[in-house]
Amino acid sequence: MGLMRFMHVCGDKTLRRWFFIDKRFAAVLRGSLVLLMDLKTSLNSPVFVDPLPSLALPSAVMTYTTPTSFPASGLYLNTPKKKPLPSKIEEVRAAGWLDLMLASSPPRKRQGKEFLPNDIQADDLDLRYHNWMVKYPSALTSFEAITELARGKRLALFLDYDGTLSPIVDNPANAVMSDEMRAAVRHVASLFPTAIISGRSRDKVFDFVKLTELYYAGSHGMDIMGPVRKSESSGHPVECVRSTDSEGKEVNLFQPASEFLPMIAEVFHNLSGSIRDIDGARMEDNKFCVSVHYRNVAPHDYEKVHQRVTNVLKDYPCLRLTHGRKVLEVRPVIDWNKGKAVEFLLESLGLSESDDVLPIYVGDDKTDEDAFKVLKANNRGFGILVSSVPKDSDAFYSLKDPAEVMEFLSKLAAWKEEESS
Ligand SMILES: [Mg+2]
What we know:
- Keywords: Hydrolase, Stress response.
- Pfam families: Trehalose_PPase.
- With 421 residues, this protein is α/β, with parallel strands linked by helices.
- It has 11 helices and 17 strands.
- The chain has helices spanning 23-29, 87-103, 119-135, 143-150, 179-189, 202-209, 261-275, 302-313, 338-348, 369-377, 402-420; strands spanning 2-10, 13-21, 35-37, 46-49, 154-159, 194-197, 215-218, 223-227, 240-244, 250-254, 282-285, 290-293, 319-324, 327-332, 357-363, 382-386, 397-399.
- The site of magnesium ion (MG) has 7 residues, from loops.
- Magnesium ion binds next to loops.
């Protein structure tokens, strides 16, 4: 795979994008101007291959030029605005969102003899969960099979943060990880390359984790601080910026959505004003994306939250709305996600083209599915879904909650140390 830059016509703006594409295809396209249709965006907007030369990266080259600034408005191509949808379709779409919002977070795990209005329902849930685990076996009970797979291979670990390393809590600012979990993550990071890939801003997730041994990708992978490869020389093309981490170590910063920063700041401001009067609604600035948390909103106000957010977004065709666990997320329409971040980090680590590498991704959320898909599609590693309720996933294994994640990480570290001794 190689990276290639495309010009993306989005609404009335032209933006530059990076895509992973087959290197042979990149060689054919390099330097030419070709019109493609971007089928992945809901806008069906055209995508032009950037005519600039030398933009397809050989896999061994991972240094980049400084990102371009947000283009002046006079440079945008004018494309017709989207026609408004018939109101009935809008109603159906809004109803679908409302269903998602109501169902977005699994019920909390039962504690001891907590009262349940209907024990039969609870038993049914347990039965469905156990049936589901036939399809998504526990990574703990399947640990021997996993280590058989990992034997003789180099492991790379990718970990989501919220709901994976820390429990989901009412106030996202309080989602701290335990000291025991931090110790377990530090231990695996001393044995395998380990990265955290979170929807939060990179700085915020680092404040929670506080481990300099890791690589961090914030804003759903749109803000990556990765390693500088030993084989790199200076002066190579592309959009990584050489920087230093908190310990002064040289790193590469990759921010494929940097041109959206002013727009995201503006939307954050507008959304904050729009939902201010809704009890329990909470905004979070995640740098390249904006989160609207509704975990503490009364269910009868969910529709109001969704309406306010979509009203603000009508003026921003280059932004899209996605849905996580009791959170609506606004992010740029770019072909970049946690799956692309995994590919990018594997390549940065020099692990993307070897058969002896086994990447494992552990996550609990819908956005983690992009990473599960990448590992599954290329058949090079596998995902572990953290969930206490049955849900469809592209992961291969499952773990019930962060406590089981910690146990899995500890077992993995112990196995590796025994192997190496
Ligand atoms: Mg999560």
